Prior knowledge:
Elements: H1 2-14, H2 17-35, H3 40-54, H4 59-84, H5 93-104, H6 108-141, H7 146-162, H8 168-182, E1 185-186, E2 193-194, H9 208-226, H10 245-267, H11 272-288, H12 300-315, H13 317-323, H14 329-340, H15 349-352, H16 354-375, H17 379-385, H18 390-409, H19 412-430, H20 436-458, H21 470-496
Antiparallel strand pairs: 1-2
Helix pairs in contact: 1-16, 2-3, 2-4, 2-16, 3-4, 3-9, 3-14, 3-18, 4-5, 4-6, 4-12, 4-14, 4-16, 5-6, 5-12, 6-10, 6-12, 6-13, 6-16, 7-8, 7-20, 7-21, 8-20, 9-18, 9-19, 10-11, 10-12, 11-12, 14-20, 18-19
Amino acid sequence: MDVLQHLLAGFGVALAPTNLAIAAIGALIGTVVGLLPGLGPINGVAILMPLAFAMKLPPEASLILLAAVYIGCEYGGRISSILLNVPGDAGAIMTALDGYPMARQGLGGVALSISAWSSFVGSLIATIGIVLFAPLLASWALSFGPAEYFALMCFAFACIAGLMGEAPMKAGIAAVIGLSLSCVGLDSNSGVYRFTGGDVHLSDGIQFVVVVIGVFSISEILLMLEQHHSSDGMITETGRKLFNLREMARTWWGTVRSSVVGFVVGVLPGAGATIASAMTYSMEKRLTDTEGSFGKGDIRGVAAPEAANNSAATGSFVPMLTLGVPGSGTTAVMVGALALYNITPGPALFTQQPTLVWGLIASLFVANLILLFINIPMVGLFTKVLRVPNWLLVPGILAVSAVGVYAVHATTFDLLLMTALGVAGWLLRKQGVPMAPLILGFVLGDMMEQNLRRALSITNGDASILVESPISVGLWLGALAMVLVPPLLRLMQRRRTPPPVAA
């Protein structure tokens, strides 16, 4: 009953005229950012975060804006995947496998509309999951001490390494770089300046906004200058605009299954929508592809990953709100947004800032409805954005990024550091190093260090406190499983796969 009362109060916040308008604007911006190849939700949220703070929006309005942009990007990413065969972000890669063949068969409108519907169902199921499980997890998390929090953050890094497919080492390198950047500045325990090089601008550490805009937005600009996505091959005749009841019935149970799996994956720290969409596409192919039609334009191959990536994106709010640990790179950026307002996410947030938390949760319901209603009828308009040339798009992104960074502290040093980090991020991305673990490492680094020091100070340096409680032991075992089980499963899969027969 308390949950319903809190949720009704949250709808009072989300449906306020100003916040409703902010959610609609965020959903629209998110869809446009999502459909532009390569940008994705992290860039959209990162660019708007400092602008929202500079405009002096209240914290609940800022979070509603960023959350609407986040899920809007997950909707928008499918448009370029289906019409161009160029995923808007990594989470939309699986959508292109069947979406683009459908578009080439004259069913582009059906693919776009069923993906919008599946995205809506996935986000709706995940938001209901947040309402049901987040308060329970928050009350359980109140029993966490410094040792438990340190084990939890180690578990988050283990999830990153274990779930990064064939590149766990590169993900680990990125996380270590993020942890190293978080150590720059004044050590709050000893009062010693660390890794500042004697520069007064680094005495308070590297600002989160500078890091996230640099490694994501600036590096993406450099990649866009290298890679020119031509719209010459874009499917312009999308045929029938809406799926029919038979097609909805054919995809319904796969959409529900994928939504549930996506939510569970999204709750895991560091897992994210990319893993969820890949898992559910493979799962649906094994369960339902009796005709061998997946990859050739099967509508079920569009619905499943779309439901999963939106469900996972929404589910990533659970660890952010309840434990203070970002569930994805985008929610890591949102943790940074809360830090700008001196708000610390975690279990106490539900009691100290109930208006903020439940207003955000209610806004997810509202933004999803807005996205469903604007995506299906306005697809023709959104596709025209794909024709914007890079020579016009890149300066616009650069200008907004620079204004956002400069607005926080009004120093040119931040702009120079943003550029340097952007070039470093560009070089790393060219080598296949993912940037999301770097941001997670930067966000969690300070919390991880502080909780380790507090835990050890309680016992005068005795490290046994890290494995004394059942919660800590469970988290350490979970971390070990996340590191060892995925590579073992991949090894078993390779052994089961028969070798190719020589011609």
